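Handout, page 2. Input:
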Amino acid sequence: MVDTVIVENEQAPGSAVSWPAILAGAAVSAGLSLILLLIGSGIGFSVMNPWSSSTVATTTKAATVAGIYITVTAVMASAVGGYLAGRLRHLWLGTHPHEAFFRDTAHGLITWAVATVVSVALLGTVTSNLTGTAARGAGMVAVRDGGAAGLTDQLFAYDYVAVSKAQGNQVNTGIARDYNGDRAVASRLLGRMATQRDLTTDERQNLAVIVAARTGLSLPDAEKRVAAVEADARAAADTARRVGMMLSFWLAASLLAGALAASLAAWEGGAIRDGRMKY
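Output:
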């Protein structure tokens, strides 16, 4: 009589993380995000009128629309990537449904994280400008670098009507000489307003003297112009701050929504992969 001994083959322990599925889902998610963002940029340029006067309400509304689109883009791209990661991961034999749910959602979350890092690497300029200006309150950089030149032009604009009246219709030809040094001083002062503080009384008076000397205006008229430009600079800085704050909150919301969408989509894909859910 021969005894038969049955030896069960133990399953070799393996990692519960399917990195090929995660990388595949992350690549698709990053690529889809890039496509959707480019489409959004094209739509924005098509509806934007560069010759219209932009108001605070219009700028704020544009930031809100951009934030909503970014959030929708994050949800769509993350959901597709998470679903692919759930469907493509390897089969877990003998795994409890609760454990399978945790692993699937974890796969979706990891896919979202990898895709986010890849997207930041590919779109580094856009992402750093949006998040950096909002997080550090440097939304005023747009005013300091892009807006100070326009405000300086407004400050040194030659008012022929006012000057001709003050001088008996005799145009002051002395303003034609080079004044780059005075413009540089004015630009620095206006740029400082965008990030630090308002002008001091001495700085305001110095600007008025420079404007009066360079434009031919009387000192009281130059002081009025300096006050008007200072108010415009303050309003532009406040608008940039609010837009940066809104974009910061929208970016945070889009990241959270993308993480949730990727996790849920990965759970659905994994459930279909295991046969726990039907189409």
